[in-house]
């Protein structure tokens, strides 16, 4: 019931009444070219593949605070009162279930609306019961989970994360290497519920989860929504690389004043975010393949909590690049964005595409949804793809492939025979 979740929920309610546009959502507004350019076939994505309709969606969630979605959205101060008032009754009806919350992973929060259990294993069992109850009470056929909870402290993989057996043993012993996110992941996968991780937290990336996802035929995706600054990075960096312009340094800083900013003000939580933000450039620029251009640049990322800004984040980038004969140049980006406004369409798309993936028989890592993440996932040993436009082609080709349409290679030599 944080800023991102409530902005998504309210937006879907508004969109289905025609009171607002789901801007930024591929599933609602995107089109897809099919066949040759001369054929003129460009259906909407939601006409090509059978996605759930907005009218059929029910929302549920957990939070460490008892506020319903209306109260939480008012507190988050992302959407204006006139928007919230228009769907107030529907928002009020979305009340959070009690959270599985061990506070050591998010020290800046002290919630009261939390479950109690003798072990983490029992905690997972309670979450599973919540999911089953939700399904029954709302009379829904299928469930999908998108993590919109806080960023947790940085955790590394340990032996407990390696197999289903070691993980379940760890749950019984309430192993400290199992964070809150992993409790939800485990509960969802056990129930066959696809799980997308919108935060940088250790969650769907561990071998035990991959094993369980395969065993239960459940799709997983992550991690950390690609929204403001990283979105810009994955647009600009591939452009510089395509023209082989060199890079001396990339300095990125953000100010934001929402609760996410407050949580990230704790160095242990920031470290989780920093790791997810730093990986992007190296993976796009491939320093080892480009000595002299990209093997000696300085990359710095900062986030500063600045309460007056609320959700209206400002992300600055200073890029020191060089061109022909090594002559230096600079690019400055000042993105006056809105965190949750950029994240909401991603949450909706992930929910609909993960549901589609499950029905299509996909399981495990959904690499084609890497388009939506700062730290996308790939099979063990495979280099991950960060370039937004390669990710977009992959996503669209996966949709074409799903319905037996020809894949598009952009070769196009047949037009010149
Ligand atoms: N908005 C963006 O642009 C963006 C981009 C990438 C990632 N994210 C991530 O998305 C997440 C949500 O962002 P936000 O701005 O909505 O933050 P927020 O602080 O407004 O919301 C997070 C919510 O999670 C709840 N929570 C924390 N631990 C929980 C638990 N164990 N169980 C249930 N609820 C729990 C908190 O009480 C809070 O209500 C954050 O992790 C953020 O880093 C956001």
UniProtKB/TrEMBL annotation:
InterPro entries: Myo-inos-1-P_Synthase, Myo-inos-1-P_Synthase_GAPDH, NAD(P)-bd_dom_sf. Residues 228-340 form the Myo-inositol-1-phosphate synthase GAPDH-like domain. One of its GO terms (biological process) is phospholipid biosynthetic process. One of its GO terms (molecular function) is inositol-3-phosphate synthase activity. It comes from the Bacteria. Signal peptide: none annotated. Pfam families: Inos-1-P_synth, NAD_binding_5. Belongs to the myo-inositol 1-phosphate synthase family. This is Inositol-1-phosphate synthase.
């Amino acid at each position: 019931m944080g800023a991102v979740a409530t902005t998504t929920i309210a937006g879907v309610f508004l969109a289905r009444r025609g009171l607002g546009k789901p801007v930024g959502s591929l599933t609602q507004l995107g089109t897809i070219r099919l066949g040759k350019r001369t054929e003129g076939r460009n259906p909407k994505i939601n006409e090509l593949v059978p996605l759930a309709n907005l009218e059929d969606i029910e929302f549920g969630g957990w939070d460490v605070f008892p506020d319903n979605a209306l109260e939480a959205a008012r507190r988050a101060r992302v959407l204006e009162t006139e928007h919230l008032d228009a769907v107030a009754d529907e928002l009020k009806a979305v009340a959070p279930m009690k959270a599985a919350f061990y506070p050591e992973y998010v020290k800046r929060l002290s919630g009261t609306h939390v479950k109690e259990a003798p072990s983490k294993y029992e905690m997972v069992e309670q979450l599973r019961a919540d999911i089953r109850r939700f399904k029954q009470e709302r009379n829904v056929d299928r469930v999908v989970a998108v993590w919109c909870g806080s960023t947790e402290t940085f955790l590394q993989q340990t032996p407990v994360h390696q197999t289903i057996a070691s993980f379940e043993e760890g749950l019984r012993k309430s192993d400290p290497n199992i964070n809150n996110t992993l409790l939800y992941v485990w509960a969802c996968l056990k129930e066959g519920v696809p799980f997308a991780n919108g935060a940088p937290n250790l969650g769907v990336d561990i071998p035990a989860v991959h094993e369980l996802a395969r065993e239960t035929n459940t799709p997983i995706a992550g991690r950390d929504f690609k929204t403001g600054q990283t979105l810009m990075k994955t647009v600009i960096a591939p452009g510089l690389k395509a023209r082989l312009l060199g890079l001396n340094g990339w300095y990125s800083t953000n100010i934001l004043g929402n609760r996410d900013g407050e949580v990230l003000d704790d160095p242990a939580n920031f470290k989780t975010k920093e790791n997810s933000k730093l990986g992007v450039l190296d993976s796009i620029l491939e320093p080892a393949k480009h000595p002299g251009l990209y093997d000696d640049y300085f990359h710095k990322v900062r986030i500063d909590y600045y309460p007056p800004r609320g959700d209206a984040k400002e992300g600055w980038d200073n890029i020191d690049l060089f061109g022909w004969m090594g002559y230096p140049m600079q690019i400055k980006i000042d993105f006056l964005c809105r965190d949750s406004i950029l994240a909401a369409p991603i949450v909706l798309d992930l929910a609909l595409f993960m549901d589609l993936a499950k029905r299509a028989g996909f399981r495990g890592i959904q690499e084609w949804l890497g388009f939506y993440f700062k730290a996308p996932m790939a099979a063990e040993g495979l280099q991950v793809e960060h370039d937004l436009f390669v990710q977009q082609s992959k996503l669209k080709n996966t949709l074409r492939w799903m319905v037996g349409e020809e894949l598009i290679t952009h070769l196009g030599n047949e037009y010149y025979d």
